[in-house]
Write a structure and sequence with these properties.
- The chain is α/β, with parallel strands linked by helices and 437 residues long.
- Helices cover 43% and strands 14% of the residues.
- The strands form three sheets. It has a six-stranded parallel β-sheet with strand order 3-2-1-4-5-6, sandwiched between helices. A six-stranded parallel β-sheet has the order 11-10-9-12-13-14. A two-stranded parallel ribbon has the order 7-8.
- The chain is globular.
- Bound molecules: uridine-5'-diphosphate-glucuronic acid.
- The site of uridine-5'-diphosphate-glucuronic acid has 22 residues, from helix 9 and helix 11.
Length: 437
């Protein structure tokens, strides 16, 4: 199958490489020349485990190329739209500029039988609107909505063997000609047992909004429980273990801590609320406002707890923040709770140093006023208080006795509840978790 992938960010670069891995001829197209230069040289423009190896591997086959020239899509059958839908400045709604530009850009190159496949997370109703554009231009072409469920940090395996495929086609019918074409694109994972569901356009768009809203709700639920645990002296990690044993509930996404961030969950729940408002269904999603509020409250809570740990004042107190990325195995700092907490602590007078194995360059672009130290030992040296805010493996494995030698004070706040409290306390540390006694 000849495939174009428009947009080579976190989603598109991985998608292009994985489609080539599945045996297709793929061209990745992006307006960003630097990104295209990097990808053409098999360098990933961001950190994603396994991506550079995959790029090197598939480029050697000659099946994958990258360009800034949209005309490279001519002659391809399937055109994936993988561009971003960030939050609009000053509004909750999604900014559709890039999706609209990518779709208009592809129109001149469409031929009868081609399939335009939307993967970006979009407000419900977008697919129907774009389908009309495609049909007006090339009545023989189709538009399918095929939402993406990959997680950063696991993007390659999530793309090559996802939980499920959702195809949103105009009539919602299995017999739609685009279904056969997408089945051919995904033949390998389908034959390995990945489930697939054919729906109409709005259902497919809503599946993605609903899935991310559910995940965000699960995290905020357990963080709300953490607040109650803090008020009663209970332990939210044991509570999560116990309720998670009920397989109707499940233990995944019940890790209480500093809350969710990243380029997806926060902006997706806001865009979903905004869209529901436009559709006159805002009441249905007012609970997401609470989900958002609980999540944002975690950040303030950590600042307050740090102040308590520091004996009541942050002024002049040296705080080292372990982790800047919104989650481990990623260098993405979009809406990172760790960085937002670091910035608030600094504003309130603490002397903050941030360390992270991968995300410091991105962090420095976003918060140039913070101090960064890539070397973990140097970052920790002389700290009065440590804050573990992104659970990278190397931070989870820290030895409390060894760390004691470098610091000025034995205080640690475990923002992800990943350290063994008893071990740290036994080594003389004043340990605080979130929602734990
Ligand atoms: C999320 C979804 O999980 C993907 O399925 C979806 O495809 C993607 O958004 C997207 O819309 O593109 P991602 O943003 O990569 O993926 O990250 P998650 O693994 O969902 O984590 C999101 C945030 O929640 C992180 O900050 C993480 O630290 C936090 N989290 C996660 C918790 O605080 N507690 C948990 O129990 C789990």
């Amino acid at each position: 199958m000849r495939i174009s992938v428009i947009g080579c960010g976190y989603l598109g670069a991985v998608h292009a490489a994985c489609m080539a891995k599945l045996g297709h001829d793929v061209v990745g197209i992006d307006v960003d020349e630097r990104k295209i230069r990097d990808l053409s040289a098999a360098r990933a423009p961001f950190y994603e485990p396994g991506l550079e190896e995959l790029l090197t591997d598939v480029q050697a086959t000659g099946r994958l190329s990258f360009t800034t020239d949209m005309s490279a899509a001519a002659g391809n059958t399937v055109h994936f739209i993988c561009v971003g839908t960030p939050q609009k400045k000053g509004e909750n709604a999604a900014d559709m500029t890039y999706v609209d530009a990518a779709t208009s850009g592809i129109l001149p190159y469409l031929a009868p039988g081609d399939v335009v496949v939307g993967k970006s997370t979009v407000p419900v109703g977008t697919a129907a609107r774009l389908a009309r554009l495609v049909q007006d231009h090339e009545p023989g072409a189709h538009l399918v909505w095929n939402p993406e469920f990959l997680r950063e940090g696991h993007a390659v395996s999530d793309t090559l063997s996802p939980d499920r495929f959702v195809y949103g086609v105009p009539d919602g019918s299995e017999d739609h000609p685009a279904v056969t074409i997408l089945d051919e694109v995904y033949a390998a994972p389908l034959s390995a047992g990945t489930l697939r569901l054919v729906t109409d356009h709005p259902t497919a768009e809503l599946v993605k909004a609903a899935a991310n809203s559910f995940l965000a709700t699960k995290i905020s639920f357990i963080n709300a429980m953490a607040e109650v645990c803090e008020a009663t002296g209970a332990d939210v990690t044991r509570l999560a273990d116990a309720i998670g044993m009920d397989d109707r509930i499940g233990r995944k996404f019940l890790n209480a801590g500093i809350g969710f961030g990243g380029g997806c969950l926060p902006k997706d729940i806001r865009a979903f609320m905004a869209r529901a408002g436009e559709l006159g269904a805002d009441q249905a999603l007012t609970f997401l406002r609470e989900v958002d509020a609980i999540n944002m409250r975690r950040r303030t809570r950590v600042v307050e707890l740090t102040r308590e740990l520091c004996g009541g004042s942050l002024l002049g107190h040296r705080v080292t923040v372990l982790g800047a990325a919104f989650k481990p195995e990623s260098d993405d700092v979009r809406d990172s709770p760790a960085l937002s907490i670091a910035a608030q602590l600094q504003l309130q007078g603490a002397v903050v140093t941030v360390t992270d194995p991968k995300a410091l360059d991105n962090a420095a672009k976003r918060f140039p006023e913070l101090q960064y130290e890539p070397d973990l030992d140097k970052a920790i040296a002389g700290a009065d208080t440590l804050l573990l805010l992104t659970e990278w493996q190397q931070y989870k494995e820290l030895d409390p006795f060894e760390v004691s030698n470098g610091v000025a004070g034995l205080r640690i706040l475990d923002g992800r509840n990943v350290l063994e409290a008893a071990k740290w306390r036994a080594a003389g540390w004043h340990y605080r978790g979130l929602g734990r006694p």
